[in-house]
Write a structure and sequence with these properties.
heterodimer; A: about 280 residues; two-stranded antiparallel sheet; B: alpha/beta; 6-stranded mixed sheet; 4-stranded antiparallel sheet; globular
Amino acid sequence: MLIDGLLIGGLIIVVGIGFSLCFGVMHIVDFAVGEWVMLGAYTGFILVRYFGHDPMIYLPLVFLIFCALGWAIYPLIYRAVSGKRHNPVLMGLVFTFGLSILAKGGALSVWGYHIQSITTWLSGKSLALGPLTIPALRFSGFLFGILITLLLMLFLYKTRLGITIRATAQDREMANLLGTDVRKVGALVYSLYAGVTGMSGILIGALFSIHAAMGVKYCTLAFFVVVLAGMGYVPGVIIAGLILGLLQSFVGVYIGGRYNLVALFMVMYGVLLITPKGILRRGI
Amino acid sequence: MLLKIENLDVFIGSTQILRNISLGVNEGEIVCLLGRNGAGKSSIIRSTIGLYPSRSGKIIFKGKDITSLSPRKKVLSGIGYSPEDTRIFTELTVEENINLSTWVRGKGDIFSYEKIFAIFPKIKDFLDRKGLNLSGGEKKMVSVARALALNPSLLLLDEAFEGLAPLVVNHFMEALNQIRKLGVTILLGESNVRIVSQVTERTYIIERGEIIFEGHPREIIENERLLKLVGK
């Protein structure tokens, strides 16, 4: 159960990191996070159906497609949240909520209510680690999560651009007053976030199932992880993602899977009540 | 004249916070805006850098009208800004805080580390420390160093001495003189007339968003009415 929780947590971390960065840099709570996952999963499904091969091969391609999508959409989001006559936070919420509805509606129109799945060469295989038997696909999802998290961390902590992104996430106005082009930084972050989230959709689609309404679940999970980590505090996402994975496993085994969301909301409510800046008290 | 502000009116919502502000700063000068908390010193500085948009009036820098430029463009045109609360990036190291400005500036006319260390030698000792773990005085130093790294012609310092221990205040006054000698003009917002009298020769008194006096700080110390007005 512990291993299972950690394995699920690995993938949730990837979705959570992008979501947290997006909030930190642009102060946008992106309601469309789950729809990026859903669209990523469907893109993987279509690529496999029309071009064959294993879905894992398409991970870099899906990343690039979604980066480009994020880059293209960002100017609209920027316009929505930076208009002087509007309430930027509310405009961001409304805009991304609209995006979410549009993506979900579009998926329903194209694929209907049918549940799809992606099969990989890892499906049905398992790994024996001593006395433990671990589903290979779930393990590869965890490895993918850890790898992407490490790469993102390396990028954020060891490159000039990454450090500029962290500075912008902490104090956008001050970063601007030191000459940083925060609009470009925002575009880059949104693009990266869309790319990583869309790419993780392929693995989520292979692990679970694909349907037009699947995004709601991942939006809730991403929101939970970011609240637990502290809004905008990226390093906290790793711990929060693992806690979420463990919590889901424990609730699933001891209480029942249908109470998962109730447990999540109770923990989220408790965190907001006791430590609104997240478990590490470093969020906004 | 390096900076000239003409008849500047600034509003936040429907409240007027600055009224008909006109002032000038010559190249190589340290000019001070003196006044009590809430008098409007920070508002003038924030309006100059572009954080408060003006409703009327002009801000002329190096002979060009920069009134409607964005804060970033003003910074890139040669105005450095160190805010009252320093706003150090606490998750970044001191070196990263300073480097952030130099990366934007690119290669070439960078205000080098040697120059920064000559002004604030102590920074060398905590370059790899995170902003979170700095004392108030250290944060002030890094904030000024960070603004200098942009290689500005004009440095806007808001309450640079506030909250500093007396010994650190002396070091800071020395640092300001060194910065001036390096060719950087300084516009300083300050509420302590004793400090002002030691670092500047020209001071404006701000009261309720208006300039009510311009002259040498000695004139303020010798004038009971003005001294009462500035509160110290």
